[in-house]
C-alpha cells in the first residue's frame, strides 16, 4: 500500500516535470513562428518586428528610470535602442529582477538581455554572446575606514552580498567569502551601509556612478581585479542569426561613433571597447 | 531532464525545508495566533477605541503585501537605527502578518458561538473572562481549525519570500543550486514539489486535529 502511494507520487512528479519541460521547448517553436510575421523574419523574434530586451530597470547607470519613476534610460538601454534602430526593429523592454533574467531567457520570454551581462565561460557554454559593448573592472567595496580588507584574498571568512547569478557571486565565493544572496546592487549597498556585511563586489562603473549620485557615501574601494570583464548582449544558444545581427549592428555603432558617444554621456569616458 | 541533478538536489532542498521553512512557519504561526487572539478580542470589544485599533491593524496587514512588510522590517528599520537579523526579521514580519489574517478567523469563530452559550455561562455566575475562556473559546477553536489550517498552509508557502531577506529555506536552496547549474526550470519545479510535499504532510496533520476536535461537538 505504502509502496503504491510512493510510486503514484513519483509518477505525478515525473509527469509534471515532463509537462513543464515540454512547455518550455514549445515556446521556442512559437517564438520562431511569431518572428516570421514582419521585419527580422529570420531572427526568430518573440514578437515579430520587435526586439524584446530584458533589463533590470533598477541598475544605475546601465538601466534605470529617470528620477526614479520617469522613462527607462541608461547606457545599456540606449545601446539596445541603437541596435534595434540599426536592425530596423522596434525595441520593447521587459523589466525583470536579475535573478529571474536567465530563467526568462531560457523560457523564451525575451530575445536578449541588455544588463551588463559579463562574458564568462560558464555562460558561453549555455548562451551566445554578441560582441562586447562595455569593458570594466570588478571592485571590492567596503565601509570607508575598514582596513581589514585590502585585497581579494582578505575576503576569506568575510561576508559579502551578491546576486546569486552574477559572476561577482562566484568571484566572492572563490575568494573564500560567505556570500549572502540579494536581489541587486541596491540591497547589497544597503546591507553594507547597515553594517550587516563586510563587503560587496561589483562593477567599478556601478560604484563610481553611485558615488557620483550620493556624494561622499562612506564607502571605499578596497581592491580592484587585475583582469577586465566584458559585457555583451546574450541570446539563446539556438539564436545564431540574432547574435550575428546584433554583432553587425554593434560594429556599425562603433564605426559611426554612437557607442563612444553614449559611453561618454554616462561615464565621462569611453568604456565601450 | 538532468535526473542526476534532480536527485542530487532533492535532499538539500528538502533539508532546508525541514530546517528552515517548517521552523520558520511554526514559530511565526504560534506567535501570530497569540497576536490574532488579542486583535480579535480588541475588535469584539465594546469600547470604540479598542475595536477601532483592532480594525486598523487588520486593515493595514491585509492591505499591504507581505513582501513589503518583510522589506520594511529588514531593510527599512535600520534607517531608524533598529537592525534586526534575518531570522528574527522574518519571524516578526510573518507573525504580524498571520496576526492580521487569523484575527478575522478567530473573530468569526467567536461570533459563531450562539449567544445562548454566553448567557448560560452568566446564569451560573461566571464572569465574562471566565465564560470566554471556559465556554466560548473551546467551541470557537473547533470552528476555526479548518480556516486556520488554511492560513498555516499559506504561511508555509509564503516563507519562500524570506529568501529575499537572507533567510535560508527551501526556495533559497533551490535558487542556489539553480544559479550554479543554470538549470532554472528543473530546480524551480523541484522546489515546487518540496513545498507540495511539506504541505501535504501538514494537511494530514490538520485532518487528524479536526477529527480529534470533533469529540467536542
From TrEMBL, chain A:
GO terms under cellular component: cell envelope
Keyword Amino-acid biosynthesis attributed: no
Keywords, in A-Z order: Signal
Presence of the UniProt keyword Mitochondrion in the record: no
Signal sequence bounds: 1-30
InterPro entries: SBP_3_CS, Solute-binding_3/MltF_N
Entry-linked CDD domains: PBP2_Ngo0372_TcyA
A Pfam family the protein falls into: SBP_bac_3
Record localization: Cell envelope
Residue ranges of every copy of the Solute-binding protein family 3/N-terminal domain listed in the record: 50-270
Membership in a protein family: Belongs to the bacterial solute-binding protein 3 family.
UniProt cross-references to PANTHER family, sorted A to Z: AMINO-ACID-BINDING PROTEIN YXEM-RELATED (PTHR35936:SF19), MEMBRANE-BOUND LYTIC MUREIN TRANSGLYCOSYLASE F (PTHR35936)
The name this protein goes by in its record: Amino acid ABC transporter substrate-binding protein
Species: Xylanimonas allomyrinae
UniProtKB/TrEMBL annotation, chain B:
Cited Gene3D superfamilies: MetI-like (1.10.3720.10)
Keywords for this protein: Amino-acid transport, Cell membrane, Membrane, Transmembrane, Transmembrane helix, Transport
NCBIfam families found in the cross-reference section: HEQRo_perm_3TM
Organism of derivation: Xylanimonas allomyrinae
Bilayer topology annotation: Multi-pass membrane protein
Subcellular location(s) per record: Cell membrane
Coiled-coil features, chain-numbered ranges: none
Biological classification of the source: Bacteria, Bacillati, Actinomycetota, Actinomycetes, Micrococcales
Keyword flag Ligase: no
Name of protein: ABC transporter permease subunit
Gene Ontology CC, one term: ATP-binding cassette (ABC) transporter complex
Span of domain ABC transmembrane type-1: 18-206
Amino acid at each position: 500500500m505504502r509502496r503504491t502511494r510512493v510510486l503514484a507520487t513519483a509518477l505525478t512528479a515525473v509527469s509534471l516535470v515532463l509537462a513543464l519541460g515540454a512547455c518550455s521547448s514549445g515556446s521556442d517553436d512559437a517564438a520562431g513562428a511569431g518572428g516570421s510575421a514582419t521585419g527580422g523574419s529570420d531572427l526568430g523574434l518573440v514578437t515579430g518586428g520587435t526586439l524584446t530586451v530584458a533589463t533590470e530597470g533598477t541598475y544605475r547607470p546601465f538601466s534605470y528610470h529617470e528620477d526614479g519613476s520617469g522613462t527607462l534610460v541608461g547606457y545599456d538601454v540606449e545601446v539596445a535602442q541603437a541596435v534595434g534602430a540599426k536592425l530596423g526593429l522596434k525595441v520593447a523592454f521587459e523589466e525583470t529582477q536579475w535573478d529571474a533574467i536567465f530563467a526568462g531567457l531560457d523560457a523564451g520570454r525575451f530575445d536578449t538581455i541588455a544588463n551588463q551581462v559579463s562574458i564568462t565561460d560558464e555562460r558561453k557554454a549555455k548562451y551566445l554572446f554578441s560582441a562586447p559593448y562595455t569593458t570594466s573592472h570588478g571592485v571590492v567595496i567596503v565601509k570607508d575606514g575598514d582596513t581589514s580588507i585590502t585585497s581579494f584574498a582578505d575576503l576569506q571568512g568575510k561576508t559579502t552580498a551578491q546576486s546569486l547569478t552574477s559572476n561577482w557571486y562566484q568571484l566572492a565565493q572563490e575568494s573564500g567569502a560567505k556570500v549572502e544572496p540579494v536581489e541587486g546592487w541596491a540591497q547589497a549597498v544597503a546591507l553594507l551601509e547597515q553594517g550587516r556585511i563586510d563587503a560587496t563586489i561589483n562593477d567599478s562603473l556601478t560604484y563610481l556612478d553611485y558615488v557620483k549620485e550620493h556624494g561622499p557615501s562612506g564607502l571605499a574601494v578596497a581592491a580592484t581585479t587585475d583582469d577586465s570583464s566584458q559585457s555583451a548582449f546574450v541570446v539563446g544558444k539556438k539564436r545564431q542569426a540574432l547574435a550575428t545581427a546584433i554583432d553587425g549592428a554593434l560594429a556599425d555603432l562603433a564605426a559611426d561613433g554612437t557607442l563612444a558617444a553614449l559611453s561618454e554621456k554616462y561615464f565621462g569616458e569611453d568604456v565601450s571597447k | 531532464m538532468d535526473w542526476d541533478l534532480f536527485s542530487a538536489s532533492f535532499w538539500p532542498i528538502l533539508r532546508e525545508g525541514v530546517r528552515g521553512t517548517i521552523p520558520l512557519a511554526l514559530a511565526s504561526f504560534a506567535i501570530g495566533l497569540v497576536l490574532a487572539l488579542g486583535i480579535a478580542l480588541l475588535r469584539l470589544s465594546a469600547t470604540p477605541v479598542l475595536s477601532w485599533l483592532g480594525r486598523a491593524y487588520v486593515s493595514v496587514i491585509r492591505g499591504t503585501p507581505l513582501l513589503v512588510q518583510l522589506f520594511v522590517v529588514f531593510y527599512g528599520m535600520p534607517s531608524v537605527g533598529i537592525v534586526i537579523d534575518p531570522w528574527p526579521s522574518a519571524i516578526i514580519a510573518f507573525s504580524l502578518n498571520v496576526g492580521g489574517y487569523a484575527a478575522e478567523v478567530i473573530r468569526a469563530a467567536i461570533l459563531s458561538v450562539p449567544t445562548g452559550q454566553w448567557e448560560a455561562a452568566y446564569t451560573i455566575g461566571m464572569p465574562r473572562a471566565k465564560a470566554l475562556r471556559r465556554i466560548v473559546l473551546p467551541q470557537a477553536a473547533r470552528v476555526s481549525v479548518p480556516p486556520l489550517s488554511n492560513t498555516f498552509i499559506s504561511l508555509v508557502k509564503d516563507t519562500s519570500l524570506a529568501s529575499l531577506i537572507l533567510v535560508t529555506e527551501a526556495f533559497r536552496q533551490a535558487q542556489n543550486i539553480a544559479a550554479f547549474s543554470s538549470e532554472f526550470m528543473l530546480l524551480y519545479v523541484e522546489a515546487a514539489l518540496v513545498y507540495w510535499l511539506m504541505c501535504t504532510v501538514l494537511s494530514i496533520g490538520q485532518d487528524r486535529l479536526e477529527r480529534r476536535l470533533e469529540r467536542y461537538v
